[in-house]
Amino acid sequence: MADSTSLSLKADQDDRISDLPDALIHRILSFLPTKMVVATSLLSKRWVSVWTSVPALDFHDSYIYRRCLEAKMKFMQFVYNALLRNKSGSVERFRLHCNANYGQSCINAWICSAAVDRGLQEADISVSKAGGEESLLKLPSGLFLVKTLKILKLEGDIMVDLRGPISLPSLKILHLRLVNYANDECLGSLLSGCLVLQELVVVERKTVNLNISSPSLESLSLTTIGSTSSQHKVKVNIDAPALKQFKLQTQIKLDLYVNLSCLITADIMGGSQGGTQLLAALSRVKSLRFLRIDHLAFAVAAGSFPSFVNLTRLELYNANWVVVSQFLQHSNKLETLDVGTSMMFTKLIPGVNCWTQPDEVPLCFMSCLTKSVEDNGNTHRNIFVFRFKALHSQEIVDDVQVLADLSTLIQMKAQFLILMAWVRSSSVHFPSGFLAM
């Protein structure tokens, strides 16, 4: 019995991780911050050399490093030592999140040490500035010549100032969040050197004109933070014939010039972009989502509402029935429609309420409602969220489900009774006692 217990304790004390192959240990450690990877050297003598061969470097200075000079110097020394002692033949991933007060020459030396001639595949660099405009980090030109780089993420107080050649032949994913551009041509110049780019994310806080041109781009997310005066518009030129997914979030007035002939899905949030231009650009999509669409009323008033020949799914939030009606009349293939209000959006902008409750069920609603309805009431706003699947044939509705607060149902009882006449076989679901009123 004693021998059995001894063997059990010995098994529990075995260092099974150290028995793993080096390649697997390197893989595990590559997902940890470098500071934690270095700490593993305390586990055993074997681990002292293991961490120096991990093909990933991840540095993140904490708030204390930025406030305390001694801590700042320790962080700088740690980064230099880790870079010098890394004996991996290649660096697959390099992540650096730090403050600009380490100095441009210091930060760029770290970047070059990890990026140049190391087979770098993924770079994630985020910088927060210590002072004014002069403290913006200008990235080393060598970063934009890494042939093996597949993912590049830049964020914060970085100045994209490209004066030399750009060659990123392997880059497929590019994220540019709140970076600064030396001029309006910088983004276009950067994209021109990315021949196989598939995903682009741009978050912009300044009103710079954007030129996005890429024959290979498949996914684009564009977010603008802030607003402009009523007289000023930002010009956005998007030439992406292979684009399949497009997401736009903005309150800035935009002049859109787009080529999105292959677009499949679009997600639009904001109330200030040009409705007519935007609708025309999205007229070939299959799935479309709008959050706050009051600006689309201008397209209705101008009589320039386009036909959505491929649209099968549509989500409209903070809508009015005029716009909903136009979509129904111009979307012959529509199968799924969600109409509702976004509580999240109204919290962001107090007082915004674009919803206009109809006095009666619109005729276009009835004519398109041929498959099923699932209606979710919002008791807080007393607003309906309609979900239905429709076929463009003239069949009678198979099923209607009504789930809403009782006061709303009483007000709309006559319209719901009309809907019941369309039901052919399935049941109609109302709150208990509603029909007896």
TrEMBL record:
The record's section on InterPro entries has: F-box-like_dom_sf, F-box_AtFBL13-like, F-box_dom, FBL13/AtMIF1-like, LRR_dom_sf, LRR_FXL15/At3g58940/PEG3-like
Pfam families reported for this sequence = F-box, LRR_At5g56370
Residues in domain F-box?
A: 14-68
- Any idea what this protein is called? F-box domain-containing protein
